Amino acid sequence: MTEPAYVASIMKTALLRCPAGTRLSDAAVRMSERYCSSMLITRGDEVLGIWTEQDALMVDFADPGAAQCPVEQVMSSPITSIKPHATIDTAARIFDEKGIRHLLVVDDDETPLGIVSRNDIALEKGLESYLRLRKVENAMRSAPLTLAASLPLSEAVQRMRTSPACDAVIVRYDDHLGILTTRDLVRFVASYPGNMAIGRLASRPLLSINRDEALINARDRLIHHRLRHLAVLDDSEEVIGILGFADIISTEEYRHLDTLRDTLEQHDSAIRQSRQSLRLAEQVIESTLEGIMITDAGGRIEFVNPAFTHLTGYELDEAVGHTPGSLLSSGRQNADFYQNMWHAMHQHGYWRGEIWNRRKGGELYLEMLTVTAIYDEAGETSHFAAMFSDITQVRENEQRVHHLAWYDALTGLPNRRLIEDRLSLATRHARRHSQQLAVVFIDLDHFKQINDSLDHAAGDELLTLVARRLENCLRDDDSLGRLGGDEFIALLPNVGGVDEAVSVVRRMIDAISAPFDLRRRQVRVGCSLGVSFYPSDANSAETLIQHADAAMYRAKREGRNTWRLYSSDMEFHNNRRMTLETALRESLAQGEGIEAYYQPLFERDSGRLYSAEALMRWHHPQLGQVSPGEFIPLAESAGLILQLGQRLLDQVLQQLHDWLAAGLEPVPIAINLSPRQFWQHDLIDDIRTRLEAFAIPAELISFELTESTLLDRHQQAITALEALRDLGHRVAIDDFGTGYSSLSYLQDLPITTLKIDRTFIQALTEGNRRGSEAILAAVTGLAEGLDLQVVAEGVETHEQLDALARFPVQLIQGFLFGRPANAATFTTNWLIRRA
C-alpha cells in the first residue's frame, strides 16, 4: 500500500507577513511583488489573521480611498491551522468543510511553519498518474461568468463577489477573450487604476485547452505559462468552461486517492512493462503538446501528430509524402543554415535549435526544433523524428521584458538606465575622436498644477505629447530619455559648439511653450533646461547629468521657461541647496529653529493697529538665519511646504491662545496658505479642528493666497473660499497685480481684501510713476466697486505714504510703521490688556 502524503511535503515555508496597521494598498504591493496568494497579518509575533487574493473581492473599486484602510480591517480571522504531520487527506477535508483556501501550518507550540493551499494539492507529484486518466471536462467549471470588456471594474468585482466560489471571469471583447482574476485585483489594489473598463485591465489573449485533453496537460500548461486559469473549448472552439488549479482535483476526490493511487500505480507498472509497444508510443505522441513529425530516410513525411496539425494547420493527409521544406519553409533561413543542420545530423545523429517556419495560413512562427536520426538493426538511418514547439510568444515576452528594462513604459523613450548607458558610450566616443557632446536636462514648469487640476491620466497624456515634441526638436543622432516624473534628458553628441546646442535648446522651449490640446481644452506648460558639456564641464556621465541638473535648477530660480549653461558656481549652490534641505527636514522633525514673526497692519487714516501678518523665520544653529526667500521655495520643491504651513498655523493659534489667557487683546492674524495647503481635500475640516483644539475664535484668523493659486481651478476655488468665509475667516489676495489677474473671475471670488504688491508702491516715488498711479487707480477703484478692503504692502517712506493719499486705500503695511517681530517684541510694542 502507498504511504499517505503529509502536509509537510507540500506546504510553502516562505511565509509573507504584514503588520496589522499597514495600509491595504501597501500590503497588496508586497503580495504582488512576491506572487503570493496570501499573507499573514501580525501584531508583533502574534498572527491575527490572513489576507488572501480572494479577499480582494471585498474592496470597493469605485472608491479610490478604499485601499488606504489598515489591512487588519479586511483580513479573514481567525485563521485555521493544521499540524505538519497531518495527512493531505485531512487538509482537503478541512478545506471542504470550512470553505476556505489556505491553512496555516503550525508546530506543537503553535509557531507558524508554513502555508498550504488548495492549489498546493493540485501540484502534488503523487497525482500525476491520476491526472493523466481524467479529462478536462470532468473538472472544469461550466458556464463561467463572462463579462463585457466595457463593464467598469467596480461592477465586475461586485458580480464576482456574488458568484459562488468565483476567482476569475472571462472578459469578452469584439473579436477575442481575456481574463480577470483575483490575482489581478490584488495588483489593482496595490496601484489603483481607477474605475475603468475591465477591457483595459484584463490579461489577454485567454489561453485555452480542449475539453477532451488530460488534466495533466492542463496542469502542466498552467505551470509552464505561470497562469491560474485556462478557458475550456469544445470541438467547435467555443468556450464552454473555465479550469483553474483549484478545479484540477476536488477535495472529495482527494479523500479516495490512497485507494486510487494503489490502483493507478499498478496500472502504471503495467504500462512501464509494455512501454515499447506501438500502442503506448502512439498514445504518448497523440497526447503530447509538442508537434511530432516522422520522415523516411529521404526526408518525406510519413506521420504527424495532432499537435503538429494544431501548430501548423496541416492535417495528416495533407502532410504525408511532402518534405518539411516544401510544406513549412519560411524563406528566412538560407542554404548555409540547412547545410549546417544536416552536417550536425550526420555527425552527431541529432540537431536542436530555433527555426522560423510558416503555417498553412501563411503566418510565420518561431519554433524550438529537435531532429533525431532513427537507426535500423544494421545501423543505417531509417527515419528522422522531429519534435518542435511554438516559442513565438516566449520570445515576444522576452523582448517585451527587455524593452521594459530599458525603456519608459509611458512614453516609449529610453529610461534612465539606457540613457546613462548611451551617455557613457558617447563620452568614450567623444574622447577618442576629440569631440564635444552636450547633455540637456529638461524639467516641465507647472506640470503639477495640470496634473492636480485634471487627473493623472491627463498628466500622462501630456507627458507623451511633450515627449513627441521634444523628439521633433532633435537632430538625427541625438537621443531623448525620460528620467521619471516630468523630467527628461537629451544627449547631443558631436556638437560643434555652444551655439549649436543652444539652437536645439531654443527649439525645445518654443515647442513646449506652444499650447497643447488636452481633452478638448488647451493647456500650457513651459520647461526649464540646463546644459552641460563634455569635456569642459565633466568627464563622466554621472557628473554631466548632475551638472545639467544644477543648471536646470538655476533656470527655474531665475524665471522658468528658460535655459542656463552649467557654471562652476552652480555646484556650490547645488550643495547649498542639499545642505539646506537636510537641515530644514531636521528642524521640522525636531520642532526647533522655526518661529512665527508678526508684522503689523495699520489703518491709514487713524493710525490704529488693525491686524498682523504671520511670517515664518528660520534660524539654524550652524547655518544661522536663513532668508525666507531661500527656504520657502526650497520647501515647495522638496515637498515640505505642507509641514511648514501647518507648523506656522499651529504656532499662531498657540500664540493667540497665550495672548487671550494673559488677558491681552490680540488683533486678527493673517496666515499665508501655499497652493498645496489650499488644495488639500480636508483643509476646512483641518482648520475647524485646530481652531477648536486651541479655543480660538475664527475671526482672529484670516488667510492670504496668491492669484496663481486660484487661477487654474476657478470653480473649485470659489467653493473652498466660500467654506473659509462660512467658518468666519476673512480672505485676501496677496501680491495682487503680479500674477495673471483676470477681472472676470475676481468678481466671483468670495474674498474680502486685495493686497497691492510692494513693487507698485515703490514705483510711486521712483521709476514709472505715472504707470504705477494708473494701475493703483484702476485696482483701488475696482476694489471699491467690489466692496473689497485694500492693503498697500511695502510702505517704507513718508513720501510713499503721502502718494497713497489720493487712492482709497484703507490699510498700510511696511517698514515705515513696523518691521516683523517675534511674539515677545510684538506683545510689548503693540498689544494692550483688556479693560
The number of E-state strands comes to: 34
Classified by CATH, the class of the largest domain is Alpha Beta
Radius of gyration: 37 Å
Count of spatially separate domains: 5
Our measurement of the CA-to-CA distance between the termini, rounded to an integer number of angstroms, reads 102 Å
| SS content category | alpha/beta
Number of H- or I-type helical stretches:
33
Average pLDDT over all residues: 86
Portion in helices: 40-55%
Biggest beta sheet attributes: 8 strands, mixed, barrel
Strand order of the largest sheet: 26-27-29-30-31-32-33-34
What overall geometry do the principal axes of the alpha carbons give?
elongated
Description:
The chain has 835 residues and is an alpha/beta fold. It folds into five domains: 115 residues, CBS-domain, CATH 3.10.580.10; 125 residues, CBS-domain; 105 residues, PAS domain (Beta-Lactamase, 2-Layer Sandwich); 161 residues, Reverse transcriptase/Diguanylate cyclase domain (Alpha-Beta Plaits, 2-Layer Sandwich), CATH 3.30.70; 243 residues, EAL domain (TIM Barrel, Alpha-Beta Barrel). The protein contains 33 helices and 34 strands. An eight-stranded mixed barrel has the order 26-27-29-30-31-32-33-34, surrounded by five helices. A five-stranded antiparallel sheet has the order 15-14-18-17-16. The protein has a five-stranded mixed sheet with strand order 20-21-19-24-25, sandwiched between helices. Strand 14 and strand 15 form a beta hairpin. The longest helix has 22 residues. It starts with 16 loop residues before the first strand and ends in a 5-residue tail after the last helix. The model has no long low-confidence stretch (mean pLDDT 86). It holds the Pfam family PAS_9. Keywords: CBS domain. This is EAL domain-containing protein.
